[in-house]
Amino acid sequence: MTQLDEITGNAILDADRQGGLLFAYHFSPMGLQAANSFKELAQLQKQEGFLWVHLDLESEVAVDWLESLEIDPEIAHVLCARVRRGQIRVDEEHIYGHLHDIRDHVGDHVLRASPMAFYATKNYFVTGEHEGLRALKNLQRNILQRKITPKDPADMICAFLGALNEMGDSLMSIFNQRLATVEAKVLQREGKGEREHLMAMRANALSLIRHISFKRVTMQEVVRDRPPIMSTSSFSRFKGQWELYGALIDEAQAFADQCQMLLYELRTQAEEDTGRTLYVLTVISALFLPGSLLGALWGMNVDDIPFQTGEHGFWLVSAIIVLLVALLVLLMRWLRIV
Fold first, then answer.
1. Which band of pLDDT confidence, cut at 50, 70 and 90, is reported for residue 27?
2. What are residue 28's DSSP bridge partners?
3. Which of 26, 31, 74 is nearest to 52 (CA)?
4. Residue 320: domain span
5. Does residue 112 sit within a domain?
6. Alpha-carbon gap, residue 36 to 24, rounded angstroms
7. In whole numbers, what is the pLDDT of the chain averaged over residues?
8. In whole angstroms, what is the distance from residue 326 CA to residue 315 CA?
9. What is the distance, to the nearest Å, from the Cα of residue 112 to the centroid of all Cα atoms in its chain?
10. Whole-number pLDDT of residue 309
11. How many contiguous H segments (helices) and E segments (strands) does the chain have?
12. Is 294 exposed, middle or buried (0-12, 13-18, 19+ CB in 10 A)?
């Protein structure tokens, strides 16, 4: 086993090298200890305290270890299933189900949610993922840096929600700054190339809202009645984090609404540009109308057209055209068309 002070570098272990164990920590009055393999984890299971075990649910070894806890097969199936129904279930001895985290490694301009399986009892807080999760890594970092010291597995749920809210606030701040930059371009009529970017940001925000809003509803059962394994203090912190979770949803919704407003503005600007172009073409066509009309009249193949044989016929017709154009311009100005 490795003492915390001996852990160096990135504390997240290699899932392939460790056979599905991403990381494991033992919390006790003696301090924090980490296990680098399931063999070391088995030794920690014999000690007083509780364990946080994080698994790669893509690994069969990890799934086998989860089933070795002698939990109900239905619970194990719920935790390991690829298709999540989003439920959080509570009974006398357990809290288990799925929470949503912010997906890791999906690009700088993307906010996407991904489910995290969890199982909390008196002695275990087991979490699992199928892909990288940001807030969970942030929670691990806070524990390693001793910023937080969870008291029990139920307290770990509160700590995770706290890390998720903190991560969400930080990311929303970054995305709001980017949106402000795009907004400045749009309002200065320089945002023609930002439409696809805005659509992608709005779609990602709505996807995030859809996932975490549903999860917030499923957590209401926990908020309504304190679970037996959750202490009064942990329950109070859970309710506080649940309310902050709702504030994160509101902020993401405001972000999506702002993206939609800028998309409307871009569409309005495009319509104005099109209208202005059509207006210019209409005015030019109107100015050429007298010349076209007189040209058609004097171009008829008849013998009695005025000025057809005169010495100054061309200039007289040209003067008439200019006069008609001038009168047309005055009329348009009087009608406030130009």
1. very high
2. 31
3. 26
4. 303-338
5. no
6. 7
7. 80
8. 16
9. 5
10. 67
11. 9, 8
12. middle
Within-domain flag for 189: no
Say if 220 falls within a structural domain. Answer: no
Instruction: Tell me the C-alpha distance between 258 and 255, whole Å.
Output: 5
Lowest mean pLDDT among 70-79, 143-152, 269-278: 70-79
- Rounded-to-integer distance, Cα 166 and Cα 137, Å: 12
What does the alpha-carbon distance between residue 8 and residue 34 come to, in Å, rounded to a whole number? 12
Say how far apart CA 219 and CA 216 lie, in whole Å. 5
Q: How many domains, the chain?
A: 1
Mean pLDDT of 246-271: 90
Does residue 58 fall inside a structural domain? Answer: no
Which residues have a Cβ under 8 Å from the Cβ of 154 and sit 6 or more positions away?
Answer: 95, 120, 227, 229, 230, 231, 234, 238
111-149 pLDDT tens trace: 677 788 899 998 899 998 877 788 888 899 989 988 888
More reliable by pLDDT, 110 or 66: 66
Can you read off the two tokens belonging to residue 62?
Answer: 């990890």
The rounded percent of the chain whose pLDDT value lies above 90 is 14
State the DSSP code for 11.
Answer: -
Q: Rounded to a whole number, what is the distance in angstroms from the first to the last CA of the chain?
A: 84
Task: Read off the amino acid at residue 202.
Answer: R
Q: Which has the closest alpha carbon to 86: 118, 125, 57? A: 118
Tokens of 104: 């890791």
